[in-house]
Write a structure and sequence with these properties.
This protein folds into 3 domains: 191 residues, FAD/NAD(P)-binding domain (3-Layer(bba) Sandwich), CATH 3.50.50.60; 141 residues, 2-Layer Sandwich (D-Amino Acid Oxidase, Chain A, domain 2); 40 residues, no CATH class. Helix content is 34%, strand content 30%. It contains 11 helices and 18 strands. Helix 10 packs across helix 11. The longest helix has 29 residues. The N and C termini lie far apart (55 Å). Bound molecules: flavin-adenine dinucleotide.
Length: 395
């Protein structure tokens, strides 16, 4: 069977649903396909987001998808030193813990309301290319072969993206740029649900452990370990079980859910555009390499991709040159921050527990007011120059 659309979006995560919504709002006949049978499940996420970015994609927080609101974050060093990032310090950027399955479904609903057609249980199996340009995708929908032709195809197929590679983009990752993650949702635990907690050091080599509260007594407790620092990804379980066992307030909890996954902690792809083709979100490696958070970048890049795809449709020009407008937008919005956080992550990856503890204690002294990385570095430069040289990065 053959279908014709202006825009085909592959993958209904936050990036894909947002792209489909904005493409449809821009007047493009849009199809969003998702290989799973249900959008949003199973959840593979810590579910934490900053508040302010939601505005940027025209979303208001809603009980429909927000599980819990947090007033701050605590960064906890191996020696127990704590650096608190509260709302005034972070410029009120503190966040929400989502019900990610409901959130993803909400975004897909917005795409449908804007006019996008949605097919679940529909997997792209190859791109259709003619004269060096992408013109659609071969799909399998409920066991049946389907050819979808479109002027613009948006790849939003997440961390394990194949679609970018099919389009000829360089998407390969090195082991040092991958975090293997494992998370339990624990119930019946104690702690302070006003904060999201991040534990650094050898409890999670090259990554961190997190406790993100979904409400009193219930939290996502997980960690990511850098693949260059462990024998294989299965070691994440050893580290997580050890982390939980060492904390009586968590060890008494019962596991409600368990999930494993991976995040890229690389630089963004060098190229995210080809003729007739755009790549967004995790597939374009737009995850923050320091935090592993990628929901918001996926949505914002999805918004830009949807808008540019609709413009391309109106201009009848889906050339690489035209679509590069998308790449300029996301680079202007967050490339600088992603690159800076990549450099910081590269240094943190190999720091020993003692240096990390010293660094967290020094951060506490800085009290920079507005907590941006340049402000922190400036404060460290003034008070603890020895730590900056230990970091070995000049900004
Ligand atoms: P995804 O959400 O991965 O969506 C891709 C979609 O494409 C999927 O639904 C998939 O089924 C579909 N798909 C794939 N291939 C095909 C195909 N061939 N045809 C059709 N459909 C296809 N980020 C945060 O901001 N905060 C967090 O707390 C956080 N915690 C995380 C914890 C873990 C353990 C992991 C693994 C990730 C975490 N992230 C977090 C990252 C976050 O989940 C991603 O950045 C986000 O989901 C990216 O959205 P996306 O739309 O690009 O991709």
């Amino acid at each position: 069977m053959r279908l014709d659309y202006d825009v085909l979006v592959i993958g209904a995560g936050p990036g894909g649903s947002t792209a489909a919504r904005y493409a449809a709002e821009g007047g493009a006949r849009t199809l969003l396909i998702e290989k799973r049978t249900e959008i949003g499940t199973p959840v593979r996420c810590g579910e934490g987001v900053l508040k302010t970015w939601l505005d940027e994609i025209g979303l208001r927080p809603s009980k429909e998808f927000v599980a819990h609101e947090v007033g701050g974050a605590r960064v906890i060093a191996p020696d127990g030193s704590v650096f608190v990032v509260n709302a005034p310090r972070a410029g009120n950027e503190i966040g929400y813990v989502l019900e990610r399955d409901l959130f993803d479904r909400h975004l897909a609903k917005l795409a449908a309301r804007a006019g996008a057609a949605i097919r679940v249980h529909c997997a792209a199996t190859a791109l259709i290319q003619e004269n060096g340009r992408v013109v659609g995708a071969r799909c399998n929908h409920l066991g049946e072969d389907l050819e979808v032709h479109a002027r613009v195809v948006i790849g939003a197929d997440g961390f394990e993206s194949q679609v970018g590679r099919w389009a000829g983009l360089e998407t390969q990752l090195r082991a040092r740029d991958i975090e293997a993650c494992l998370q339990y949702t624990l119930v019946g635990i104690d702690g302070d649900p006003r904060y999201s907690d991040f534990y650094l050091g050898s409890c999670a080599p090259g990554g961190y452990a997190w406790v993100f509260w979904k409400g009193p007594g219930i939290a996502n407790v997980g960690l990511g370990v850098n693949l260059s620092r462990v024998k294989d990804k299965a070691e994440a379980r050893t580290y997580l079980d050890r982390f939980i066992a060492s904390r009586p307030e968590l060890a008494k909890g019962r596991v409600l859910e368990e999930m494993a996954g991976a995040v890229s902690v690389s630089l963004p792809l060098e190229r995210t555009v080809a003729a007739g083709f755009l790549l967004v979100g995790d597939a374009a490696r737009l995850i923050d390499p320091l935090t592993g958070g990628g929901i918001l970048q996926a949505m914002v890049s999805g918004k830009y991709a949807g808008q540019v795809a609709a413009q391309a449709m109106r201009a009848e020009d889906a050339s690489e040159k035209f679509l590069l407008g998308y790449e300029r937008l996301w680079r202007a919005r967050f490339e600088e921050g992603l690159v800076r956080n990549y450099l910081v992550k590269e240094r943190l990856r190999n720091l020993d527990d003692e240096t990390i503890s010293k660094f967290i204690r020094a951060l506490g002294d800085c009290n920079p007011g507005q907590l941006t990385i340049p402000a922190v570095l400036e404060a460290l430069r003034a008070k603890h120059p020895e730590l900056l040289s230990e970091f070995g990065v000049s900004f």
